[in-house]
Specification:
With 248 residues, this protein is an alpha/beta fold. It is 40% helix and 14% strand. Helix 2 packs across helix 3 (65-84) and helix 3 crosses helix 4 (111-122).
Length: 248
């Protein structure tokens, strides 16, 4: 592994050892350019719709916040140039902990500060447009935790994203299949017309106010058929969805 990193990235000057955090995470402009070009070749595409920086909060494990945002600005500056070159249409951050963490957590990300960073390098017409984070029946922080700010107001993540004009894509809709079985009866009552818990878990995520897309990983054709049944129904109404959070 170390030999591969040395020959592929360090010796050509794509990054330095000190740019790599926790032995695996790098987001220098040169590294992103290398990876984007490789992805375009692999996919046989001229342009990628959305390019995510994956788990940028990993950098906070070893960097002070001021240095982190400097690195993020450099990464965003490159991605703006990639938009201008026609290689990507927009960019975003695909995260796990950052936006869900409490505000005093070491790996906490402020969406407002990330957007401010994009605006600093790309102006008001910047192309930081999309954020990905887990939203599911077991991970409801984006919906329920007031850990963000937007325009001087304390907000949940989903509220802040709406205020700041950021599209939200939900990952882990079934929490790596752990929500595919054994859900409470109340979930089935809230989401009628579905026959499996996997479908109900997907319906929860796609019905969450503020979520645009619910991502689902599938490894077999029967699972594809099962999960696509959810698309036959409209997302649950906000009134029905909120019944899950009201004690009667």
């Amino acid at each position: 592994m170390m030999s591969y990193l040395e020959k592929t990235f360090i010796e050509p000057g794509i990054c330095r050892w000190e740019d790599i955090v926790q032995g695996s995470h790098c987001m220098t402009a040169e590294y992103l350019a290398h990876q984007l070009d490789q992805s375009l070749r692999n996919l046989k595409l001229d342009c990628i719709d959305i390019y995510y920086i994956h788990n940028p909060e990993s950098q906070l494990a070893e960097l002070p916040r001021e240095e982190f945002y400097k690195r993020l600005a450099t990464a965003f500056d490159y991605l703006e140039s990639a938009v201008q070159a026609g290689k990507i249409a927009m960019y975003g951050t695909a995260t796990w902990n950052g936006y869900r963490a409490v505000s005093n957590s070491p790996d906490y990300l402020s969406l407002e500060e990330v957007v401010r960073t994009a605006r600093m390098v790309g102006g008001d017409d910047h192309h930081f447009k999309v954020v990905q984070l887990p939203v599911n029946l077991a991970m409801t922080e984006a919906l329920g935790n007031i850990n963000q700010t937007a325009n001087g107001q304390n907000r949940t993540f989903l509220e802040a994203a709406a205020d700041l004009g950021i599209t939200v894509v939900a990952s882990a809709s079934m929490m790596q299949a752990r929500l595919a079985y054994g859900l409470p009866v109340s979930i089935a009552e809230t989401f009628p017309g579905l026959s499996t818990d996997a479908q109900r878990a997907i319906q929860f995520t796609r019905s969450t106010p503020g979520v645009t897309t619910a991502l689902v990983g599938m490894s077999s054709l029967p699972h594809v058929d099962e999960n696509m049944e959810v698309a036959r129904l409209s997302p649950a109404s906000q009134e029905d969805f909120m019944k899950l959070f009201i004690d009667e």
